[in-house]
Each structure stands twice: as structure tokens, then as C-alpha cells.
Model the fold of this input.
Amino acid sequence: MRMLLISVVLSLSGCAVVQKIDSAIDCNGICQRYASCFNTDYDVSACASRCRDQASKDPDYRRRADQCNACISERSCARATFSCLPECVSVVP
Done:
């Protein structure tokens, strides 16, 4: 019984770690892309920090950030601006 409880706790904490890593990758990608496409002086670090904080609090935001990053990573700046609007409108800084 004790081993089962330990396994469950480790599994749940593992999911949280994976979600944090995924959110960090998504947020960094979104913020870096914004800087490279629109404003080279943009504070990517502050943007990514805000995004990660929001993603850790709100699963829906985390899902939208994941979708946004997936969309923009496959397109040029010009194409991403219009093609990814539905995925990114509530995520992009």
C-alpha cells in the first residue's frame, strides 16, 4: 500500500514538472518570436515570466499558449500574424 501511495505522489508531481517545462518552452517561444517579429527591444525575459506565471495558475491559458506556440513556430512572421490570431490573441503580449 505504501509503495502505491508513493507511486501516485511521484506520478502527480512528475506531471506538474512536465507541465512547467512545457509552459516554459511555449512561453519562451511566444515571447522570443514577438521580439524577433515586432520589437527587437522587447523584454523577452519579463514576458516569459508573466506567461509562465499565468500558465501555472490557469490550465486554459496553458493550453492556449501551447496552441499559439505550435502555430507560430511553423510560420513566417507575416503568416503567423494572421494565421495564428485565433490561437494567440489572448496569449501574445
